[in-house]
Amino acid sequence: MHAEDLLTLKPTAQAVAAATERLPEPTTAVRDTLRRTLAASLRAPVAGQWPALLLEARAKADVRYVEPATSHRPLVGPVLVFAKRTFRGAFQPFINEVLRRQVHFNEAILDALTVVIENQREHARTQALWRRELEARMKRLEKDDPSASGH
Questions:
Q1: SS3 helix, strand, coil % of the chain, rounded to 5?
Q2: Cα dihedral angle (74, 78, 83, 89), rounded to 10 degrees?
Q3: Domain with 116 in it
Q4: pLDDT, tens digit (0-9, with 9 covering 90-100), for 101-124
Q5: pTM here?
Q6: What is the number of domains present in the chain?
Q7: 27: left (phi over 0), alpha (psi -120 to 50) or beta
């Protein structure tokens, strides 16, 4: 489905507004239920644990430090490991400075993704709440008017 499939010119906004004017006033109980549902859906997201799918990325966010040097080569391996460790030891301050902005960027992206995931969870919770409310309302309507269910 595309967005343009959802757009329609009929009925017009004015016709919809006029139809809503003809709706009966809701009862106090219905208004209270709607207020409670709205209040529950406006609850701010709760900061929880890091989402599981970001745990590995979080562990790798600081790219300045790597695993200890190793080599699979039998004869020249120890020499290569020594060279890598020596290079790393001598140039680590420069490496840190060069990668500092990258680390800040990685952390900012992870924080933003965490907020997006938490917001998505909150929206899913709110949507489930609204769905339960609509299903309960449909059951009440079907109970009051059995012909409305289409049976």
A1: 70, 0, 30
A2: 140
A3: 49-150
A4: 999 999 999 989 988 988 888 889
A5: 0.52
A6: 2
A7: beta
